[in-house]
Amino acid sequence: MISSFALGARVLNKNEYEKAAINAANFIINKMITKDGYLLHRYRNDEAAISANLDDYAFFIMGLIELYETTFDAFYLKTALNLNKTLIENFWDNKNGGFYFTQINKELDNFRQKDIYDGAIPSGNSISLLNLIKLARITADTDLEEKAILIIKAFSGTIEKSPEAYTQFITSFDFFIGPSYEVVIVGDSDSIETKRILKAINSRFTPNKIVILKSSENMKTKITDIADYLKDFKMINNKPTIYVCSNHTCKAPTNDINTMLDLLI
User: Fold this and answer.
1) What is the C-alpha to C-alpha distance for residues 135 and 11, in angstroms, rounded to an integer?
2) Fold for the domain defined by 2-177
3) Residue 180: which H helix or E strand, with range?
4) Contact 28, 56 (CB under 8 A)
5) CATH classification of 181-263 is 2.60.40, yes or no?
6) What residues pair up with 186 in beta bridges, in sequence order?
7) pLDDT for 178-212, tens place per residue?
């Protein structure tokens, strides 16, 4: 729901959708993450309890990534990265790759399952694959990209036999093989020119992209704290500037919206 409201907010320009996504995400962050950084599964009668499973982590991380692309508040991206780290540390299969549905438990490890089937609800592994790819492209963290490759290798044999049963996994894989884009905008989020750029991006259906905003505004968490390479991205002509990149190889920066759209095939 957070993912849907966040995406709907920027595509339909609905502020109430953005508020709903923010309120939902903040509730989970404030009420359902332990001091040690573990996500919990349910909240009832003023109590959060039960260790979260893979799907809980995967879908919430996905929601936080979408919420970042709507608000450009790097706090949500940082939270996604922290939860993704916890997920890898506690759910990753170091022998064969991919994520188990439940976290490490020495007494039950022999019974842990790995699910990949994308039914009415996609599997946690399929969503985690997309999350890893997006976070890797945002941060330029090759370790995350390597984890994505290992998930693909772990399940490719199974998926080749019946691809129609793994539609979300194939969608995530499509993002991986590309073409996919990292669109970096350098400019103040409140400026009219920046808003025009974002409106143009959101008016076109280009699902295989990540949009990053590097703003000069003061925020508790800056995007450059998460993605150090963005320090080298500057405004040109003293105007909001767009860098269209693919797998961290960027075309010449531009101030022109139509040039940007032409680069997003």
Assistant:
1) 21
2) Glycosyltransferase (1.50.10)
3) none
4) no
5) no
6) 214, 241
7) 899 999 999 998 899 999 999 999 999 999 999 99
